[in-house]
Amino acid sequence: MSLRGLLHEDNGRYEYGAADHQSAGAEAARQGDQHREFVSWTNYAASLAKAGRPHAALRVFRQIHQRVRDQDDQGHLSAALNNLGQACLEVGELQEAARRYAEALELQGRAMTTSAMTSLFGLGDVARERAGGGSVFYRMAFATGMAAGDQVSAVAVYATRVVGEQASPEDERLLRDMLAAPGAAQRWVVRLQVSLALAAYLERHGDPAEAVELLRGVVAEADRRGAFIDGVRARVRLARLLPRDEALLVLRTARASLLNHLTRSPDQRRSGEIAAEFIDVHEQLIDLLVGHAAPSREDVAEAFDLHEEARARSFLAGLADLPGLAPASVPADLARREAELLAERRDLRRDLPALQGGALRTRLARLDAVAEQLAAVHRAMTPFAPEHARMRQSLPVTLAEVRELLARHAPEGGVTVVSYFCGRKTTTCFTLSSADGEPRVHRAPVGEAEFTAVVEGLARTFNGAPRAFPPLGPIHPRRPHRRSLRDLDALGPRLLPADLGGTPLLCVVPHGPLHLLPVHALPDATGVRLVERSAVVHAPSLSLLAHALSRPPHRPRRALVAAVAAREDTRPEVFEDDARILREAGWAVTDLSGAAATKPAVLAELARHDLVHLTCHGYLHPHDHLESGLVLADDGDRPSKFTDDLGLRQRRRAVLRAADVAQHREPVRLVTLRACASGRLAPEHAGDEFSGLSRALLGAGAAATLTALWNVDQHSSGELLRETYRGWQSGLPLWRALWLAQRAFLTDETRPWLAHPYHWAPLVLTGDWR
């Protein structure tokens, strides 16, 4: 069964391969065969990693390690630790990776074993990630493997490491000898690793033309084998060595292979994690298309569509799964069939992560069948409701559709989209105004690492760092100017295009760490902050914006406030007095505060309100954003803020899930999360998927959210919200109401501290701006 699983993986059917490995592991456990059980479950975790799901793989490797410990299985403990170290390394958890490799090495003592070789290679990888070193560990690992008699593995693994180090002519000879060795000819993984390493050496130190031919051979063999991931990665490497036109052709082929793989995935909600592993494909394509002085209109249009395609794929899949009726223009039989199939797909996916073996294979086969039937339904729907059909197929919007979207929904004076794609060293910004519909490109020499450093620095500046040495307290609300915003201010002139400010509204579409950056607080080259020129709203993607704007707005009338502190909070009134803010702004308020803020009470009121203002602690589900939510009162008792300890029954009673919000026929116009850093998002992987309550609620169908990027001051944030709510309730568009409140802070001469971004910049409006 494990062999069949490996064959499924060779054909890119990783879910089916994983199911076979699970079945093999369960059967081995029934027979008491610890070795076969360990191998099968290790193959299962490795299958997740091969499918581009490193975080899921890490969770399984942790379980395997714990199982080996529980069974006192000393024979597999070193391997379990090395595997866990590698999984930690893949997701950037360097400290734990180093600890696991060191534990495995200590178990070997002074023995020259394959396991010791693996540990040393892993410690070299950690050293390289931390400080750009690792050569000493790599050479020790190589010598250990050769002494252990595992020459094939020693050379193959060493080959993948010397690429980033000071490779020598001796290394080149070693790699060439390895390719000619009989053992390498029989092992594709070894031949692949050695070929890629030799190609990298030739690129840097030898003959690039030979490197190209070597990589062409790798691509051809990967295609023959149906090795999807190997083929994509080899094409990315090959494209770097080719002339522009040929490189574009190679990368477009890699992209087509990636999209084909994503469409075959039974659970599209995982597609973002898979796509993120190959973000290099989109980054290189965009660089080739617009990374030169005068890109053509066609190249800019293609790059624009690519940058939208690369972002938030799992998010689109979540939207495609939302309950809801097809537009009235769709024939009734098609609408009914779509609703039936969508409901069945949601049911089939609900407990998919918990299934194993044969039950999982059966479920996957049914999901494949439902996907085929839905595809046929949506093809038939397209002539009647093309936008709906596109959304249900998780297809991103195109440049032409964004032009039409802006023309239809632009406010008086116009709107400009400012959409980013954040690369390793360069960020590409596309601007598109409703006035002319012609996209413009701005390239900023700022990469992901610098943005991340600025975001982390801002969190320390505003929230403090009590565990640092020396510890840093939170910012003083009356003296915020004592803390420098130098790094944030330095980004503005480089990141903001010079032609912004021609419209009163800017819609920023971030990418990667830019989701966590207050772009509206960035200054231009003259020192004027962006929000002083234009109002700024956000959208996770243009595709989500199109979905949010597809529903007609109506004037807001009623507000629901649900506010409950945790039993550990020493000042519950900080959480439970927010109804006053809405009443002072002139709203009719339904107040569910304290013990009254139960899940049934809130659900009963949702559909009757345009604005839902929530002040409570959050719960983030590790696998499904629709299962994330907010912790409400539990049968009249305040909940605990330690949400990771909540049991299943308690979560069902007390957590208002995003899925619960999604069940309402009339989506909420605005959800405000007034909690500490409620808009903070955590990266799920290397792409553009971030977990957080704001993202969960938007994914559940909320038209817009208003959340905070850092821990807000209770007094100034309450005032900012009150004035925003007052303006919106009086008839102003939501974006203008927030903008006027922010500008009032900037110009308040009697309270000059309010002009600091700490007070007016934390709240971010995301989604429908109307």
Mean pLDDT: 86
The dominant shape is globular
Q: Please give the count of helices.
A: 36
Helicity range of the residues? 55-70%
Task: Give the low-confidence spans.
Answer: none
What does this structure look like?
- With 770 residues, the chain is α/β, with parallel strands linked by helices.
- Among the domains are: 319-392, no CATH class; 405-545; 547-767, Rossmann fold (3-Layer(aba) Sandwich).
- The chain is 56% helix and 9% strand.
- It has 36 helices and 16 strands.
- The strands form 4 sheets. It has a 6-stranded mixed beta sheet with strand order 7-6-8-12-15-16.
- Strand 13 (682-683) and strand 14 (690-691) form a beta hairpin.
- The termini are far apart.
Strand-helix topology:
Layout lengths: L1 H9 L3 H18 L2 H17 L3 H17 L3 H17 L3 H15 L5 H18 L3 H13 L3 H12 L6 H12 L1 H4 L2 H18 L2 H18 L2 H12 L4 H20 L7 H6 L2 H12 L6 H13 L3 H8 L11 H19 L6 H25 L4 H7 L6 H11 L5 E8 L4 E7 L6 E5 L3 H16 L22 H10 L9 E5 L20 H4 L1 E4 L3 H8 L8 E6 L9 H4 L2 H6 L3 E6 L5 H8 L4 E5 L1 E3 L9 E3 L16 H7 E3 H5 L7 E4 L8 E2 L6 E2 L1 H7 L4 E5 L5 H16 L4 H13 L10 H4 L2 E5 L3
Parallel strand pairs: 1-4, 4-5, 6-7, 6-8, 8-12, 12-15
Antiparallel strand pairs: 1-2, 2-3, 9-10, 10-11, 13-14, 15-16
Helix pairs in contact: 1-2, 2-3, 2-21, 3-4, 3-5, 4-5, 5-6, 5-7, 6-7, 7-8, 7-9, 8-9, 9-10, 9-12, 10-12, 12-13, 13-14, 14-15, 15-17, 17-18, 20-21, 34-35
The gist of it:
By secondary structure, the chain is α/β, with parallel strands linked by helices. Among the domains are: 319-392, no CATH class; 405-545; 547-767, 3-Layer(aba) Sandwich (Rossmann fold), CATH 3.40.50.
